[in-house]
From TrEMBL:
Residue ranges of every copy of the Ionotropic glutamate receptor C-terminal domain listed in the record: 62-292
Keywords: Signal
Residue ranges of every copy of the Solute-binding protein family 3/N-terminal domain listed in the record: 62-292
Low complexity bias locations: 31-47
Protein name (record): ABC transporter substrate-binding protein
Superkingdom classification of source: Bacteria
GO molecular function, one term: ligand-gated monoatomic ion channel activity
GO CC, any one term: membrane
Coiled-coil segments on the chain, per record: none
Cited InterPro entries: Iontro_rcpt_C (IPR001320), Solute-binding_3/MltF_N (IPR001638)
Organism: Actinocrinis puniceicyclus
Length: 305
């Protein structure tokens, strides 16, 4: 799910905390274009997004978008501690404009979003979700970005840690609950360690990314695993306290999560294609310094693993 003015720009610790990410995270291989085995549905570039919005949502007139505002630059609180800003927040508003719907962004815990979508509590989930086949059993996704996982450590890397390496064995790695880092990355590292006869990686999970970042800052954790754009942003905004060690890995598509089969995915896909065509998509990513994660071929349910 992202480091600078973190969760709430109150204390320096909170700022460092928010500096990292966690949500979707990535550990599933996929192309940088975000295209997978997914469907383009009826949302061709020429489709009118407004005409594809299901009647029940159109009559409501509002899109409720759930996010975990604890990882900049994708989604985090502005300095007022109330306004949610970031790439996903800007993109949500732009999509709403193309769909003819007002957008309300709600801050919730990351690991509650998919369940909330399944219960029709929210209309969209935009919180750096990695599109995975497991998640596609519960929700639909429209791919819109590409990211991997990165390992963040204290300056100087005192423990000599490297991603996907036996140097992690026996070390404490902080992650956010519900992320790919928690469900896939740490277990994979532990498997490598035990196969080598070394102690397992110690998983220290938090309800939001701020907690994971603070654990590294306080010394409770030896490293933090998070999505690559969030980790990079956190390190950059930490005034030299944090650095990224090694290279990002496990590149996979982010997806906008939508209640399964409710008919909204084609409309979102069509709206996203409009934003890509008119330049708004590129402008939003460039604003937050994450244009390297741009894709060119969004699809519905594009997970490869």
């Amino acid at each position: 799910m992202p480091q600078l003015i973190g969760h709430r720009a109150v204390a320096a610790g909170a700022i460092l905390a928010a500096a990292l990410l966690a949500a979707g995270c990535a550990s599933n291989p996929a192309s940088s274009t975000g295209s997978g085995s997914g469907s383009s549905a009826s949302a061709s570039t020429g489709s009118d997004p407004k005409s594809l919005v299901p009647a029940d949502i159109k009559s409501k007139g509002t899109l409720i978008v759930a996010t975990d505002a604890s990882y900049a630059p994708n989604e985090f609180f502005d300095t007022d501690g109330k306004t949610i800003i970031g790439m996903d927040a800007d993109l949500a508003q732009a999509l709403g404009q193309e769909l003819g719907l007002k957008v309300t962004v709600q801050n919730v815990t990351f690991d509650s979003i998919i369940a909330g979508l399944a219960a029709n509590k929210y209309d969209l989930g935009m919180s750096s979700f990695t599109d995975t086949k497991e998640r596609e059993k519960t929700v639909d996704f429209v791919t819109y970005f590409s990211a991997g996982s990165s390992l963040m450590v204290k300056a100087g890397n005192p423990e000599g840690l490297k991603p996907n390496d036996v140097s992690l064995c026996g070390k404490t790695i902080a992650v956010e609950k519900g992320t790919i880092q928690e469900s896939t990355d740490v277990p994979a590292d532990t498997k490598t360690c035990t196969a080598a006869g070394k102690p397992a990686v110690k998983d220290l999970s938090f309800d939001d990314q701020n907690g994971a970042n603070l654990a590294l800052d306080s010394g409770r954790a030896d490293g933090v695993l998070a999505d690559s754009p969030v980790a990079a942003y956190a390190a950059k905004q930490s005034n030299g306290k944090f650095v990224i060690t090694g290279q990002p890995y496990g590149t996979a598509p982010y997806g906008i999560a939508i209640p399964k089969g409710n008919g909204m995915a084609p409309a979102v896909l069509a709206a996203l294609k409009v934003l890509m065509t008119n330049g708004s998509y590129t402008q939003i990513l460039t604003k937050w310094g994450i244009q390297d994660g741009a894709i060119t071929n969004p699809v519905i349910d594009g997970a490869t693993s």
